[in-house]
Amino acid sequence: xxxxxxxxxLIVSGAVLGAADQPLTVVESALIxxxxxxxxxxxxxxxxxxxxxxxxxxxxxxxMRPLLILRLVRxxxxxxxxxxxxxxxxxxxxxxxIPEHHAVAAEELRAVLAGEPHPGLRRTPxxxxxxxxxxxVIGAQRDAADLPAALTLARRHRAAHPxxxxxxxxxxxxxxxxxxxxxxxxxxxxxxxxxxxxxxxxAQPAEIYGSTLLERWQPLRDEAVRARLPxxxxxxxxVCDLRAHGIDDLGPIILGGGHSSMRAQLPDQKIPEGRHxxxxxxxxxELFIAGRPQPLAAWPDRGFTTINPTQAPTNPEELARRLxxxxxxxxxxxGYWYWDWSDAWEQVAAVRDDGVIDLVxxxxxxxxxxxxxxxxxxxxxxxxxxxxKLDAAAGRLYLLPPEGFDPATCSLSVATGFLRAxxxxxxxxxxxxxxxxxxxxxxxxxxxxxxxxRLELHNxxxxxxxxxxxxxxxxxxCTITSMGRNGLDLLSGSWQQLDAGETLIENCRIGNLSRIDxxxxxxxxMEGRGITVRHCHFENIPSSAIRIExxxxxxxxxxxxxxxxxSGDQGVIDCWANPLLRGNVIRWNDFQAxxxxxSYGAAAxxxxxxxxxxxxxxxxxxxxxxxxxxxxxxxxxxYNHIEGNILINGHRLVxxxxxxxxxxxxxxxxxxxxxxxxxEAWAKAHPxxxxxxxxxxxxxxxxxxxxxxxxxxxVVRFANQTLPQAALDQPQDLRPxxxxxxxxxxxxxxxxxxx
Length: 755
Fold this sequence. Notes:
about 750 residues, 14-stranded parallel sheet, disordered N terminus
């Protein structure tokens, strides 16, 4: 079919395609007509149609040009016309602006056309251990008794043999640490000779734990304490003298986090300079029985009740319960005090006669209204098997033991982490099980060329990893579960300086998090630039799975399941109020079972307050929105592309609107003041940045839906189509329904087995 004949066939409402006032729907019809030729088995004819369409493309359709050229490339590829495909790729690359997801696809297509494996489907290998390394084995009758002793030997060897790799290897067994081990630049490895801390036998990983066994328990005899207990548990509660177990000082028992201002009580813990949206862990001790964290004595026993601590209760039963809390030590309230998206811990100072609760200042920033909350660490509420109460000042722990309680399986987390490192490069930590720590397990500051591989991080009250500055971090095939806060908190590279961190998180399983601080504790906080997250599985997270504070990052081939089940007004992938975080690509992910119970909405991906220049591309959305939000929710952002996605269930694909950036907003003002975004370097890196203050459209392009035309409003819509209803048990069931140009690698999504 010649170009002119093709155009002649595209007459809609009496207008010929290419006229200056031609509506976008005519271009859409032309694309669909060419697509139909490809679906009928004639990709070469489809390519001719795309070529004709591009030759006469009206100005109104200019933003669709990259999509159309990319479709042309793939049609030539399907027709085995490699030369034409390469020529079309060159045409795409010559555009003044290529949306970042198209740039990624173009680079991969060029590699495939050159006969290389698809770069997006490659798996990153874990670097092998050096064969000529100096080995130091930790264990009984070995080279060293513990890690500090092994490091002393390693430093001596490094001084004499600076170019040789050093492997510190734990023999199979269990190892207790009383305090985190500190590493400095003096311990650094070399590019070809890293410092390795690992298991001697990866098939039998060493277990390293930071808890103290609580073996000695006594029946409770103290009548003053017994009088506070519920009658049902008074004769069953046991008491443990912590000092008799060598636990002399637990420090401040701080439960605060999120938007609570309790961090002010720890003056030595400051948010690092230059970081605007990060939170700190507090060293909360936890009780474990048979490896499971036990709940502090609370009311209600599960979930929340509805209270306002600053107001006197009108219900006599509620007043009576509050008066029972008078005189309690280390008593805390935890709740969503004002918003569904912000929880906070508040310490109780006193309970007045009328039931008003005085709180220890400073309190959370939002204030109080009658909201979802609970009281925690109350002797008077110690009524369920497994519940416990900590009296830090007295050094006592009270427990209502579960059935079959064995003190030999009971422990309290004491060590405030496993490793702390600063200014240390070329460190590998691999094949270890790290369990039962108080605070963050790994804390690395300004460390580059770090490998964390095949680690199991489990049961800590803080984060699995805090990585505060550095480049080329590789976290590979790790499992992070049962954290009190985040899984990973990363700062790598700099969005302000356009400096890529080259950090990769691959094949990790992260879930069952936020046991203590419920919001602003994503499984992954990613801050900086140039961070890739791929082939990971995120599951059972009360708030967001990923918080994006980075630019030019890639999130692909991940599964998100049962996230946002408690919080609201957020996204499984969430970002907020920094319109300079451009060029992030979110593609080939499977979002499923997004089940927010809060009164506010929930989305798979949320761009909150002027977030712009994001690319949501070829994702699978299965029950991926709640309470009116779309699977992608845009709050006044611009130039966001939602393209090639598949909506299985949910209210709609997109909700929200575009809008001009509010320069008076505090966080926007901070972002604009901390980057030279008007410079030539920024314009080169992000070609649309000169339009930052002008506003602009969002683009909903070429998406498919199995739930009917629920696309959303407030965006430019183009070539979105409804698929026929079909049974869908697994993502692979979609394969027969996808058109030939849809490149979602369904069989590759999610974590894989051993690398």
